[in-house]
Amino acid sequence: MMSTQTVRLLIACPDGRGIIAAAAGFLAEHGGNIVNADQHTDPAHGSFFMRVEIEVDGFTLDRTTFATAWEPLATRYDMRWHVEWGDRRKRMAVLVSRETHCLNDILWRWKSGEIDVDLAFVAGNHRDAESEVTSFGVDYHYLPVSAETKPEQEAELLRLIGAAEVDFVVLARYMQVLSPSFVAQFPQRIINIHHSFLPAFAGSKPYHQAFERGVKIIGATSHYVTDDLDDGPIIAQATLEVDHRDTVEDLVRKGRDLERVVLARAVRLHVQDKILVSNNKTVVFE
Amino acid sequence: MMSTQTVRLLIACPDGRGIIAAAAGFLAEHGGNIVNADQHTDPAHGSFFMRVEIEVDGFTLDRTTFATAWEPLATRYDMRWHVEWGDRRKRMAVLVSRETHCLNDILWRWKSGEIDVDLAFVAGNHRDAESEVTSFGVDYHYLPVSAETKPEQEAELLRLIGAAEVDFVVLARYMQVLSPSFVAQFPQRIINIHHSFLPAFAGSKPYHQAFERGVKIIGATSHYVTDDLDDGPIIAQATLEVDHRDTVEDLVRKGRDLERVVLARAVRLHVQDKILVSNNKTVVFE
Amino acid sequence: MMSTQTVRLLIACPDGRGIIAAAAGFLAEHGGNIVNADQHTDPAHGSFFMRVEIEVDGFTLDRTTFATAWEPLATRYDMRWHVEWGDRRKRMAVLVSRETHCLNDILWRWKSGEIDVDLAFVAGNHRDAESEVTSFGVDYHYLPVSAETKPEQEAELLRLIGAAEVDFVVLARYMQVLSPSFVAQFPQRIINIHHSFLPAFAGSKPYHQAFERGVKIIGATSHYVTDDLDDGPIIAQATLEVDHRDTVEDLVRKGRDLERVVLARAVRLHVQDKILVSNNKTVVFE
Amino acid sequence: MMSTQTVRLLIACPDGRGIIAAAAGFLAEHGGNIVNADQHTDPAHGSFFMRVEIEVDGFTLDRTTFATAWEPLATRYDMRWHVEWGDRRKRMAVLVSRETHCLNDILWRWKSGEIDVDLAFVAGNHRDAESEVTSFGVDYHYLPVSAETKPEQEAELLRLIGAAEVDFVVLARYMQVLSPSFVAQFPQRIINIHHSFLPAFAGSKPYHQAFERGVKIIGATSHYVTDDLDDGPIIAQATLEVDHRDTVEDLVRKGRDLERVVLARAVRLHVQDKILVSNNKTVVFE
Q: D214, C234: Cβ pair inside 8 Å?
C-alpha cells in the first residue's frame, strides 16, 4: 500500500514566485521522485499550499537529515511545513456515546483495511457500544461522565491516549463537549461528525431543528474540533433530499447514511495527510 | 395539456377518520373521476392534507355550484380548502434587479411552454434586463427604487399587478426587500430564490458568507415570501459540492446553476397547485 | 411500530373511473381508517396502482373475511390485489460470498431495528463472512458451490428457506447466478444489488468496465431477480461522481458506499410492502 | 481575466522519474511563475499527465522561441505537448436542430462572459432557433440537410468554419450524425451532449429507452465526438433521480436541466484547456 511507501511533505506559506520549482528542484536533487503533487493558491489571503508525495525508494533524505537540508528553503519562503515519513501507521482512538452507526462503519472499514490505521481503542461514556467493539477484537474503555466528573474523565482519557500513543481521535457521535484544555492538546487531531449541513443547525438536536424549519435537504458535516462548538474547519459535507413526509425519525434514519460516509471520508483524508488548515478552513487535496 | 382539463381540490384539516372516503365518495357522487390523489398526515401537528385532481369531463359541479355542495363536508371536518378550476392559465409577474440568469431561464421555460402560465410582465429596479425581456416580446417596466421612493415604487408595482390581473409574483434575484404591507397582500403568492441552503447564510452576500465559512457544499432555496426575511416556507432546495479551489466568483457561478433549477421547480409546483402551507412549512405533492 | 399495526392493501388494475372512491368507500364501510393512500396511473399502459394503509383498530374485516367481502369489487375492476396483515414480521434470509460490506450494513440495520424483519439466517458459498454473522447471534450456513454441485447446493438452500419460513431473500453481493428454477419459486422475493447504474455495465466486473469506459459517475442498482441476468425490475439506484484520479480500486471502494445504501433502501421498501411490479418496472410508493 | 494572462502548457508522456522537477526547473529558468499546476499518473497505462499555468508577466519565452527551448526536454521524456498562449479567445461555433434549451443556455453564458469565447456563429438544420440566435446579435446559418445533401451541407459547414476561423464546435442537441471525414478534421474539437448517462442508452431516443427500462436515475453526458457514435471520450456527466410517476415527457423536461449544465461544464473546461485525452478517456484538471 502507498501509505507505507511514500513520504508526504505538506507546505503552507505566503504566495510567491518559484516555490514549486524550488521545492521540486530540492527533491530531485536528493533523489526524490514525486509521485503526486498538489498545490493551491488562495488569492484572497495570498497563501500558497502544497502537498507532495515522494517515493521512499531513492530518496536520500530521512527523518534525521531532512530538516537540516530543507530548512534554508523553508526559511526563504516562510513556510509552515510538515513531513510524514509513512513508515508507521497512524494510531486512532474513537469516542462514542449511545449511537453506534458511525462506530460500526469505522470498525468495518478499519477491519477491511479501507481505513489504513491502527485502532488503539474505543472509549465511550455509555456501555451500549461495548460488545460491538469487543466483537471486533478492539479494547473498549467505559468512561462515564457527568458535569462533576468531567475533569477526571478527561484526565483518564488523556492517560489512555498517551499510553496507547494515539495520533488522532475520532468522535463517532460522541455527545459530550470536550473541554478547551483537552481540545488544545490535539489541534487538528480531533475529527467530529455533526449531523447537519453546518453552519445550519449547529448545537443540539439538529434533525429536530431541520424538521421544524421544514428544509428540503438535510446534511452532515465532518470537521476538526476547536474551542468554538461546531465551528471548526470543515473537512467534508454531504446532503440528501427529504420532503414533507419525513418525520424527525426519518430524518434521523436517513441522516445516518450521510454521517457514516462523511465521517469515514474525513478520517481517510486525515490518515492520508491530505488536509491543510488555514484561516479556519481546510485545503483538501483529494 | 392537463392544466386546462382538470379541477384541483386542495384540503387541509385536523386529522380524523374517514376523510379520504368522504371526499372520494362526494366526488364520485358528482361524477368526478379522480385522476390524481395525494394525501399526507402530519402526526406531529395532527394535521391532514389532501390534493385531488378531477377530470372536468363528467364532473357535474362547477365554479358556481361547488361551494354549496361541498360546504357540509368541509364543515364536518373543519377544512381549509381551495379549488382551482383549471379553466384559465395563472398570470405571473417577474421582478428582477441586475442579474438575469434566473430571469432568462424563466423566460425560456415560459416561451417553450414548460412553465404553463401567462407572463403578464417583468419589472425591475434597473434597466439591465430590459432588452432581454423585450426580445421575448414581454413588457418590461423600469421601476427604480430608493429608500425614499419605495412607497411610491411599490404602489406603482401594485397598480401594474392589479391592472394585469397577476396571480403570483416571482422574485428572480430581485435584490430589494418588499415592505410588509406589500407582502401581506400576496400570501403564498410571492416566490423568492435565495442563493444559499437556508437557514444557513440568510441575509446578504450568502456566497461570500459561504466562502468565509469554508463550506464544502453550497445551495439554493426557493420559498414563499413572508415578513420575516428569508424565513418563509421553503418550497425547494438543492445543493452541490464545492472545494477549496473555488473562489467567491466560482461559488457565484456554480450557484447560478442551482438557482435557476430551484426557482423553476418552485414556480412549476406553484402553477400546478401542488403546494400547501401549514406551520410555515410546505407540503409539496410532486 | 407501524409495521405491526396497519393492514396494507396493494392493487393493480386497468385504469378506470371511480376506483379510488369505490375502494375508499368499501374500506370506510368496514370501519377501516385509511392512514396512508398512494395511487398511480400509468397512461402509457392504461394501468392503475394503489397502496392503502389501514388502521387495524376499528377494521371489521380480517384474514378470513376480507377476500370474500372484497372479491366483487376486485372482479368489477379486474384487480390483481394483495393484503399484508402486518401481524407478523417478514422473515429474511441473506446470501453472501466474500465481500461483506453490504452484509455488515444489513446486520447493523437489522440489529438496530431500522430494518424491521426477522433475520432467519445468512448463507454463503465462502466462509469469509461466518464470524461476522455469528458475532451478531445469527446462524450462518456455509454452502460451497461449483458448477457440478450447484443443483445440490440450491436444493439445500431451498430446504433451509422452507424450514425457516423465509419470505424473501437478499443477495448481499452473492456472486453466484441462481438457476431459473430457483428464481421461479421467488417471484419479486429475491432482491439483488448490482454494482453499476444498470443497464450500463451489466454482467461481471462492472467497476472494471466503468474504469475502461472512463465514465465520470458510477452507480449501484437494486432490483428484483428474474431469469434475465441484471435485467429484473429496478427498485432503487444511486450514483456518485468519480474522476480520472480514481483507480479501479477507488471505484470499488467508493461504490461500496452506494451499494450499502441502495440495497438497504430496497430491502426497507420491500419490507414495508411499498413496491408493485408491472411490465418489468416498479411502482415504488415511498 | 486569467484567460488572457496565462500560458497553459499541457503534457502527456510515459511516466518516469523527475518529470515535474525538470518541467518546473525549465520554467523557472525562463522566468515563468507557475500559478497553477496539476499532474496525474495513470498507473494502469504507465502514463503521466501535467497541466501548468504560467504568468505571461516575466516569462521570457514566447510563441516563436518556446518550441526550440522546450524540445530537448520534450524529447527526453517522449512528451506529447501543447501550449496555449492565452493571447486570443478561442472561437466557437454551435450547431443546433430544433431543441433550443442548450443553445439558449450557451448564448446566455457567452453573453454574460461566463464562457469566455468568441461566438463565431450558430448553424442549424432547422429554422426553429434562428430568431433566438439573432436576438443575441449572433449570425445564424440555416443549413438544411437530407441523406442526399449531407455531403454538400457538411462542405458548406466546413467552409463557414474555415472562414470564421473556428477553433471548436459545440453540438447543442444537433440531431445529425456528422460524417467520419468531417469528424476527422476536428479531433477533440467537437463537443456533444448526449441525453443519457452513457454508456447506457446510446443511440436515439434515450429518454424513451430509460422510461421503458424503468430506471430510477437519468443522466446526461458530454463527450468529444469520434467516429464511434456516442462512444467518444467522456468529459462530464450528471444524473438525477426520477420515479414511476415520471412520464417520458417528464424525463425529457427534467433531463434538459442536466443537459444544459453538463454541456456548459464541458465547454468551459475545453475553453480553459483543462482536458487531456488518452486511451479514449479524459483527464480533466478542474
A: yes
Return d(Cα A86, Cα A92) in angstroms, integer.
15
Contact between chains at A37 and D37 (C-beta distance less than 8 A)? yes
The average pLDDT across A79-99 equals 96
CA distances for B93 relative to B120, B140, B141, B164, angstroms: 5, 10, 11, 9
Work out the minimum CA distance from B128 to partner chain D, whole angstroms. 12
H or E segment at B141? strand B140-142
CA distances from B252 to A40, C243, D40, D44, D68 (A): 20, 23, 28, 37, 42
- CA distance linking residue A82 with residue A22, whole number of Å: 17
- Which member of A105, A230, A246, A273 is catalytic? A230
pTM of the full predicted structure? 0.96
The CA-CA-CA angle for residues B180, B186, B191, to 5°, reads 95
pLDDT tens-place string over residues B153-206: 999 999 999 999 999 999 999 999 999 999 999 999 999 999 999 999 999 999
SS3 B80: strand
Altogether, the residues listed in chain B come to a count of 286
Please classify residue C78 by burial: count the beta carbons closer than 10 Å to its beta carbon, then call 0-12 exposed, 13-18 middle and 19+ buried.
exposed
Query: Which of C199, C213, C201 lies closest to C246, judged by CA?
Result: C213
Q: Of residues C230, C231, C257, C273, which has the active-site annotation?
A: C230
Tell me if A239 and B239 make a contact (CB, 8 A cut-off). Answer: yes
Specify whether the CB–CB gap between C168 and C200 falls below 8 A: no
Closest residue in A to D240 (Cα–Cα): A241
Cell numbers linked to B6: 382538470
Checking if the pLDDT of A1 tops 70, the result is no
Chains with at least 3 CB pairs less than 8 angstroms from chain B:
A, C, D
Instruction: Please confirm, yes or no, whether D228 is among the known catalytic residues.
Output: no
Which residues of chain C make contact with B27, given a CB cutoff of 8 A? 21
Residue C212: CB atoms within 10 A of its CB come to 15
Per the CB < 8 Å rule, is B36 touching C41? yes
